[in-house]
Each structure stands twice: as structure tokens, then as C-alpha cells.
Amino acid sequence: MADHSHSHAPGEDCSHNHGPQSPGIPQPDPAAQALIDADFVPTPLALHPDPHTAVCSPHKLEKCDKCNVDFVNTNRLAKLLVANPSLLCPPPNNVVSQQLSQMALFKSGQAGPALGRYTAAAQLAVQRPPWEANQFMREELSTVISNRSAAYFDLGDYISALADAEAVISLRRNWPKGHFRKAKALLGMHKTKEAAESVRLGLSFEPQNSELLTFLNDIEKMQQKLEEKRSQKSTPAVSA
Questions:
Q1: Which has the minimum average pLDDT: 36-40, 137-141, 200-204?
Q2: Which of 27, 61, 126, 135: CA 20 to 30 A from 6?
């Protein structure tokens, strides 16, 4: 309760509030403020035609080596906040954006045009708000790159398909789909042994995955046929 240490004359109206008072603005710590001031370097900047994009004043660039400035992340955060005016700053941890890459994905049997879409989707996926947990970006990005790996495979570009599959595994090692994509790319390169090893690694994370179990069975049948052919070639013909 607030201390009411003064009195009012008879008939005097008490028009001020004696309730709890709001705390004043805390004074900065002098030592911390000195460190901030010591590191502060004024940077001339300008606004892009978009009023939410800062650029260097001389060259009008978001990232400029000559001016030693990089406003990319600052501008990205500004745009995210402008696009979400109702969010707190920063918003609570349970606020999660919808998949940013969905707008760039589409179902199509044409692998060629799909590649550009998946690449654009990957660029969008890494632009998730900085306040979100890193796992959301990893899940979305790995899904997009996995789809791009499949598109490369359909085009017969097995090296690119393998590279994307390796990227998926580095993002989500325990996701069976990444190991499946890698095995398919290796099989396209006629590396059946390595493909089988990749499937087995995926099964170590999810032993009952039907896609991997079926694919491993197919690979083992291929390996058996290859062994039979090698055996027939190495067996000398018997003369009558």
C-alpha cells in the first residue's frame, strides 16, 4: 500500500492517486554503458525505396564490403516484424510460422522445372524468424532438399542427387528418407554395396520402416544376381 504521509484541509478535493506508482525507467549501469559506447561506431545508412530496408548510404547496398556493413539480417527481422504487427517483439517461443517454402512447392511430373522451385523453396526455408527453434528450419529445409534430390534422380543426375541426400542427412541424420535418397542415388551410380549400407544405416534409426525394408530387399536381390553373373563368367567351360 502507498504511504499517505500528507493531509488534506477540510473540504479539499483529493484529485491525485495514492495507488501503486509505476516504477521509473532504470538507470543504465555505468560500466556496461561505457563498454557499449566504446564499441559503438556510427554508420551512415539510407533507406531503400522499401522503407523497411536499410542500405549503405554511398552505394545503396544491403551488404557492402567497402562500407563494412551488413544489414541483411536486420532487414530480414524488420520485414518479419512488419508482416506480423500483432506479434510481441520477440514473440513467445510457441509462436511458429507456417512452412515458408509451401508457396514454392508444387506437384508435377516434370523434374526439370521442379528443380528451380525446390531451390527457391530452400532459400525460403532458411529465412525462418530468428526467434524460432532451429529444428523447424532443419525439418523444413531437409524436406525440400530431399524432394530436390528426387528430382535430380529422375533427371539422371545421380551426383547432384547424392549431394542433396548427403545434405539431408547432415540436417536430420535420424530421418530415414535422407538415407533412402542416398541409397537411390548410389544405386543409380551402380554402387549396390554402398547403397545397401546406406539403407541399413537408415534402418538403424527406424528398424520397421517399410520403404527401407522393401528397398533393401530389392538391392539384395540385385546383388545376388550380380554375384551369379560373376560366378558364371569365372567358371571355365567344360569340353565334351
A1: 36-40
A2: 27
